[in-house]
Amino acid sequence: MGTRLELIPVGEWNIFPEGKAPMLIAGPCSAESESQVMQTAEGLRALGVNVFRAGVWKPRTHPNTFEGVGAPALQWLGRVQKELGMKVVTEVAGEKHVSDCIKSGVDMVWIGARTTANPFLVQEIADALKGTDIPVLVKNPVSPDIDLWIGALERLNQAGVKKLGVVHRGFSTGEKSRYRNEPLWQIAVELRTRYPELPFFADPSHIGGSREYLHELSQRALDLGLDGLMIESHCDPASAKSDAGQQVTPEDFGKLISGLVVRKADSDSPEYKENIDQLREQIDVIDENLLSLLASRMNLSRSIGKYKKEHNIAILQTSRWDAVLSQMKERAESYGLSAEFVSAIFNAIHEESVQEQNKILSDDSGDEN
Ligand code: PEP
Ligand code: MN
């Protein structure tokens, strides 16, 4: 369970231009050189992008790879602020990074996926940010652990950071996938539902791991109603020292953004409202029916549990369940439902039934023997 977060609305951060949706953050994976930073930022600025990202300290999987230029690169970000009037954001992974960013006047920071996974480091960052006003974006932890993500938000919030947002960059699941990191959108949706006022960005660059997926992933994020996108852009992606395959030129970034359909959160049209309200009411009725059917099913299952107990029969008969499940999956198709969906639902129902029957088995109060 997450606690309540005390937040300052993103409109009051003085970072993103008013009324522009989605909010955009773009820039290279890493700040590599002064000219690369300036050239990329100029290209993005010309497209109307106001918030420039660049990694100064890079957490790399393998040693002896480019780990960022470090603090000297902060001066280049200073030039982007002064000469182009852009806001700048970089990644911090510890107290020293935070103090360097404060000294050089970085506008906003983000906490990377590997750092969010480490409560000691998140606490260190939170403590270092005490008393400052710098907005912080928290990327999801590498593993699909929503509580670890929420815990990081809580640590920062308890240290007084109220300008908080999140970045969904996908998860390592160990499953083989065409994406670098599995989107597991349901986790984003769950966090969104728990904290609807938390500014929510998607990072399709790190989810996809390849520029070919940027469009589909960005569109998906917008369709889910997320507030913004963080996308890696490099003036010469082929020569990038990190994440070369997923970066796009500012020009391609512009094309990508103009090809996205931005959906409205709601509509004022009375006709739309009336129709959607009717459909939602129908859904509510069906949901109520589903609940009542589930309850009836569970009651039957408890009766079976009692009967099994009386006859000293084991609860789990896997062969019966396998047969039921495969029949359901077959039937799913004729209802226009996917086999995965149906098997997920029925497995959840079955698991609960087994638990209920187990309770009956271990409950001696009604036992007549
Ligand atoms: C990055 O944004 O360049 C980065 C390192 O991201 P993540 O923490 O999501 O891997
Ligand atoms: Mn990167």
What does this structure look like?
- The protein has helices at 34-46, 73-84, 95-104, 113-116, 119-129, 146-158, 185-194, 204-208, 214-223, 250-258, 270-310, 318-334, 339-362; strands at residues 23-27, 51-53, 87-92, 108-111, 136-139, 164-168, 200-202, 228-232.
- It is of the alpha/beta class and 369 residues long.
- It has an eight-stranded parallel β-sheet with strand order 1-8-7-6-5-4-3-2.
- Bound molecules: phosphoenolpyruvate and manganese (II) ion.
- Manganese (II) ion (MN) is lined by residues 29, 206, 232, 242-243.
H/E element sequence:
EHEHEHEHHEHEHEHHEHHHH
End-to-end separation in angstroms reads 42 Å
Global shape: elongated
Mean pLDDT: 94
Question: Which structural category fits the helices and strands?
Answer: alpha/beta
Provide the list of bound ligands, each named once: phosphoenolpyruvate, manganese (II) ion
Helix segment tally: 13
Which ranges are low-confidence, i.e. pLDDT below 50, for 5 or more consecutive residues?
none
Strand content: 5-15%
Main-sheet strand order equals 1-8-7-6-5-4-3-2
Number of strands: 8
Largest sheet: 8 strands, parallel
